[in-house]
Amino acid sequence: MPPLEIVTPVPATGFFTLAWLLIAIPAASSAVLLLVGRRADRWAPYLGAAAPLVSFAIGLVYFVQLLGRAVPERAVSVPLYNWISSGDWQIDVGLLIDQLSIVFVLLITGVGGLIHVYSIGYMAHDERRRRFFAFLNLFVAAMLLLVLADNYLVLFVGWEGVGLASYLLIGFWQYKPVAATAAKKAFVVNRVGDMGMSLAIMLMLATFGSSAFVAVNEGMPSVTDTTALIMGLLLLLGACGKSAQVPLQSWLLDAMEGPTPVSALIHAATMVTAGVYLVTRSNAIFAESTTASLAVAIVGTVTLLVGAWIGCAKDDIKRVLAGSTMSQIGYMMLAAGIGPAGYAYAIFHLLTHGFFKADMFLGAGSVMHATNDEVDMRHYGALRRLMPITFVTFAAGYLAIIGFPFFSGFYSKDHIIEVAFESSAVLGGLAMLGAGITGFYMTRLMLMTFFGAKRWQQGVHPHESPPVMTVPLIVLGIGSAIGGLALNNWIVGWLNPAVGGEAPAEAPSLLHFSPVAVVTLVVVAIGVGIGVWLFGPRRDIPLLQPESRSFFTLAGRNDLYGDALNEAVFMRPGQQLTSQLVRLEDYGIDGTVNGTAAAIGGMSARLRRVQNGFVRSYALTMTLGAAIVGVVIVLGRLG
Amino acid sequence: MTIPWLTILALLPAAGAVLLIFTGVKAAKQVALAVSLITFAFALVVASQFTIGGGQFTIGGGMQLAEQAPWIKPLGAYYALGLDGLGLTLVLLVVIITPVVIIASWRDFDSADMSAEADGPSSTGAATLAPKYDARVFFALVLAVQSCALYLFLATDVFLFYVFFEVILIPMYFLIGGFGPGPRRSYAAAKFLIFGLLGGFVMLASVIGLYVHSDRAGEPSYLLSTLSQLDFGTATGRWMFVGFMFAFAIKAPLVPLHTWLPDAAEESTAGSATMMVGVMDKIGTFGMIRFCLGLFPEASQWATPVVLVLATISILYGAILAIGTRDIMRFIAYTSITHFGFIVLGIFALTSQSLTGSTLYMLNHGMATAALFVMAGYLIKRRGSRDMTAYRGVDQAAPVLAGLLLFAGLNTLSLPGLASFVSEFMVLAGTFSRHPAYAVISTLAIVLAALYILIMYQRTMTGPVPDDVKEKVTELNGRERLAMAPLVLLILLLGVFPKPMLSIIEPATQATMQHVGVTDPEPRVSAEGGR
Fold first, then answer.
1. Closest residue in B to A212 (Cα–Cα)
2. Staple partner for B285: which of A34, A104, A291, B252, CB 3.0–4.6 Å?
3. How far is the C-alpha of A352 from the C-alpha of A401, rounded, in Å?
4. Preceding amide of B466 cis, omega within 30
5. Residues B512 and B356 sit within 8 Å (Cβ to Cβ)
């Protein structure tokens, strides 16, 4: 493989030196909302929604400025201050605005801003909405720090910051025990991934004496294969946690306990894609280890199938979408695992997915809003007439995700399937199979929700949502429809060389009907066909989930037994260990201290009743203990 | 004549304690707060005299603002004080924590006001004991602990250090035994005292050994500057090291010498527990750097493998016990055991980053436990129970209380952006560069920390709120928020911008490293211009 070209960012000048404002504005808004108290209740949603939109405007200015620059000058570094310095380590806080980070800035603040606006309507009746917007703003600030950092340790601050925001928002309705448990689970599972991240950063510091992107990228070609492999796998572990990839996928489905705008923003459009960003950003590391890259591709492929499988079996609309999110991120990971040829497509799909999945989640929120927070699709049906805007925009998202020609997913997903085929027939074939399953479960969702007979519960009177909710839906729906078309000829050339690949010689055709694309369309059509056959308008859909003996259905309904596995392998042994250690502590260590004292000191029952007895016993055993520890230290060294 | 800055600093709280004897019970807290604030202000003046990286910066020598006068001639004991980056860090910790403790304990003795603030513990029917002594004694003891701690962090004479190492046990003993709310307070206080005395007793043997050696080398002297130049010989040095290390490993408890701490914390009021765990226990880790590394560099390296193993065990053991504990005060004690493990790990990993990280960790851990204990104290005062299961859904009854507890918890689990993260990461990354295996195992604790903090939070703050909690657990008042405010601000500030503290600590770290004769492991790949 030819050595990667290392991009050296140019120092920021002019308005670029103020790039920290991007992060500071939502952070400040969050602080204000948290500190001002009830007085802010009335205007809180407006301030909360304004903050990301202001950041979006600033981001847009930067984007336009970058567009006007020559390619080598499109990476701008914005040094801020020295954070940690000790010995030879200098860890600086700085931002990097380049082709990759700027598209993320626009996605986070653009789609994020729309979701904030939508939330003004969605959360209008929640008396704690001030807190809700504070947490959403906190999320936006942390996510922007994550993508703008020019250093892995600073990235890690944003990385855990979004984890915190995710925790706070999943558990937003924490008076519900399920929500509180789901929030805790998300944070803890993410911490397992974060352990990988922090070890990777420690390894970078030990290897390069720095965790800055520039230093790591420059140093990577000189490291051993083993170091590169370990570093890659540790980063992959981090990515698995954040992006809900197998084996750290189990938290995402439970995360649907959070309010729906949260699911749209954090658990679909932005935060969960951070793992893909991390792998793409670390392309210099994965370039040195094909094994680590292969691991990324395998994890992605497995997850895209697992997520799709789960999506087929759920009746809860949000969980179907959550399974689908896992699956779509699996596609992105697969692309990122393929290497330089795939990175740009991973990001392309990430962007289009950001639009169509946010669109569908908000659409699902609109449906829930109309049906007294009903999430069971068996209690929907025939909503298309009463909720025309929601229906049409949702349909745009649906066509995009299944890859209907000229809708956004058609371009972004097919590219991934194609490069997967170029890399390996197995990966390509499985990715294509996944597309077929996607066609099936999304068709099932569409039909159960918007078509067929009314299956509404008593007292439910569906109605279209207010404009503050439907306008964001319309914008996202348009994005889902034409996003791929608009970006297809531009995005790959734009992102390279920031993602370590080369720009293609000629723009790909918009009439994208390669053999692979045609076969994929046929597979998707089969999936859609099965969906229509099983769940079409004529079919009677029972109000209760029918019992099933099929392994596939049962496994899917139970999230492929991920929780059961975690419980058997980690939780129960962990609880065992904890209770054993508590017993050891109470009766073992402390008891030994007291007990041996009683024996050696010949302490009588009478003495034991007197506090002084304890004093004596401790004096004795501690002297003994001192001798033992001394001997251990000596022997431990001499032996 | 030069001003004896350090003596004045260390004596200010002691003078305040004496003053309290002559003031009325009602004015005690105001006087105590005033004294602690004057001490704080004076410490800032002293800090402004401190030149970063100034002086010679070798162990024992080059201390700033040094004072020295002969004390017990035949023993070679001096009244000698001095300030370096390590000492200054801990001095700052002491002067910050003490006023917080006083404000947080403000109403502990107002039985008349108790009903106004919240239902007193006694009304719940739980067996809670009244304090044995009045408010004057409590605040005087707190100030006495502060004074002793300041002396300990400033002493540059081993004998002077030893004396205060023993003396500090006395006010602490009475704080636990005289004011603890539970029936086992005498037991816990006795246990605390015996562990402390025993540590001191074993240390005394080494202290005597030092006398013998310095006497043999010429004139007896307990000055650090003299002792650090002596060569004790391998075997003797190792034995004396063990004596000191043992005492310090009890104070900053390493498993298995930790069993006194959970009991003592459980039976203390929040204020006493903060003084004990947040301030007093730092003497142990401080002593490891100052005396173990400073006097016995060879023995320290010799003992490193065993100490690293014990530290790693403490990290995991403390974390797992914290997961399994329902008593909120014991819980905080166990989280401290895991954090002391980190500090010790960083000290003995002996890299610039881990050693600086450990020193910073002492400050950060002091603030972190103070925040946790203060919040726990607020809870216990309202509901009259230390048992986590007595609380539920507090977030709905008192959102600010819940929010601040979560903040304190997130700092304890080392969330990046908050102070503890900087020090914990420096310890881990520094350790990784020399002993990767220990660092990898210890990193497991970041998952365990998430578990113990979030389980505690979920148990107490989330879920549907029962009526009795709703009625009793009222929102924090202004005074209670005020006690937390400096901690919150400092935790945020030092998380984002730790530079001021790091630049104070770093020269002391480099001096220690040089004295021990170790250098940082070189990066395996040198990256040019890598910043």
1. B531
2. B252
3. 9
4. no
5. no
Q: Contact A223/B524, CB-based, under 8 Å?
A: yes
**Which residues in chain B touch residue A223, judged by CB atoms under 8 angstroms apart?**
524-525
Query: How many domains is chain B built from?
Result: 1
Position B107 scores a pLDDT of 85
Q: How far apart are alpha carbons A69 and A65 in whole angstroms?
A: 7
Residue numbers of the domain that contains B291: 5-516
Tell me whether residues A171 and B462 touch, CB distance under 8 A.
Answer: yes
Cβ separation A219–B530 shorter than 8 A: yes
Helix (H, G, I), strand (E, B) or coil at A515: helix
Residue B183 included in any domain: yes
Contact flag B499-A222 (C-beta cutoff 8 Å):
no
pTM for this entry = 0.92
pLDDT tens digits, one per residue of B158-181? 999 999 999 999 999 999 989 988
Longest CA–CA span in chain A (Å) reads 95
Determine whether the interchain pair A202/B417 forms a contact, defined as Cβ–Cβ distance below 8 Å: no
Chain A touched by B193 (CB under 8 Å): yes
Question: What are the φ and ψ backbone dihedral angles of B415, each rounded to 5 degrees?
Answer: -70, 130
Tokens 């099936």 found at: A440
Question: For residue range A91-105, what is the model confidence (pLDDT) as tens digits?
Answer: 999 999 999 999 999
E strand or H helix at B72: strand B64-72
Closest-CA residue of A relative to B428 is: A202
ipTM confidence: 0.92
Q: Which residues of B fall within a CB distance of 8 Å from A209?
A: 523, 526-527, 530
Nearest CB among B242, B393, B443 relative to A630 is that of: B242
Show the tokens assigned to A398: 């649906």
Q: Is B528 part of any domain? A: no
Whole-number pLDDT of residue B230: 86
Please report whether residue B156 resides in a domain. yes
Q: In this model, does residue A461 exceed pLDDT 80?
A: yes
Pairing of strands A10-11, A76-86: parallel
In a domain, B323, yes or no: yes
